[in-house]
Design a protein that fits this description.
Blueprint: H1 9-12, E1 13-15, H2 30-36, E2 42-50, E3 53-56, H3 76-80, E4 91-92, H4 93-100, E5 106-111, H5 119-133, E6 139-143, H6 146-155, E7 160-163, H7 174-185, E8 192-197, E9 202-203, E10 206-207, H8 210-219, E11 223-226, H9 233-238, E12 242-245
Parallel strand pairs: 1-2, 1-12, 2-5, 5-6, 6-7, 7-8, 8-11, 11-12
Antiparallel strand pairs: 2-3, 3-4, 9-10
Helix pairs in contact: 4-5, 5-6
Amino acid sequence: MSSPPSRFPRGRLIAHAGGAVNGKKYTNSVEAFERSAQIVSLIEHDICDASDGLIVAHDGMEHAYGIKGSFSDCTTENFSHRKFTGTLCPMTVRDLMSKLQNVPVSVVLDIKTAQEKDYPAALREIMHYCLKYGVLDQTIVQIYSIDDFNNALELGFPNVILALWKNFSNVWTQECRNCVDYCFDFDHTGFRALSIAARHFWRNGSYIGEKLEEYAFNKTGSIFLHGQPAEAEAVLLERGFGLFTHHPEALVNYCPNTDETSV
């Protein structure tokens, strides 16, 4: 089952935070994962620190689980016994990787550690479960800097997405370009893609990304945008972008190829 993800699996769509389920977004829940696995081949999940390990949850959403304080004050066992808004089942990273071995999808992991220095430790825990359940080739880690890229490579992660939204609010700076050049000029055989905020491509109802598009697609054929308004999604798909979306089921028909194809 473990095989590298295709360039734009099932129409270039990534189910954001597991994808919406029962009208709710950012649930990162078992139900969201299982639903999205029937629709797309890429599912993004957010990873946060609990007191004794990693959990699958969006930062700042403690209230949805009835947690007073931060996730880091909660154990993984305590978190596992809670429900998102009282109805949806949460997951630890171990739970997610265990489920991943049974379905032909890949996960994109947005690692939201409290401090940047904690990122390597999070990668090591994720790698442990990737190897335990045999899902390394189905796992794509989001990186945010050259240091993150080097840490991921050193640990043996074959698949990465460079997210430019965390450390580079301005994608035109030389520092940002240097990071992109380093990560994509590096001789590396896995899946690599860029994640860029849609505001750099779409503004006030119009496409404005011609110049950045040329540069980005010259670096990699795989670019995923996020934060786009609904009216922009069909246009962006037709221009060849992939999208993070809460509602992949509404966009599959816009995509020219819904079959799995190798890069």
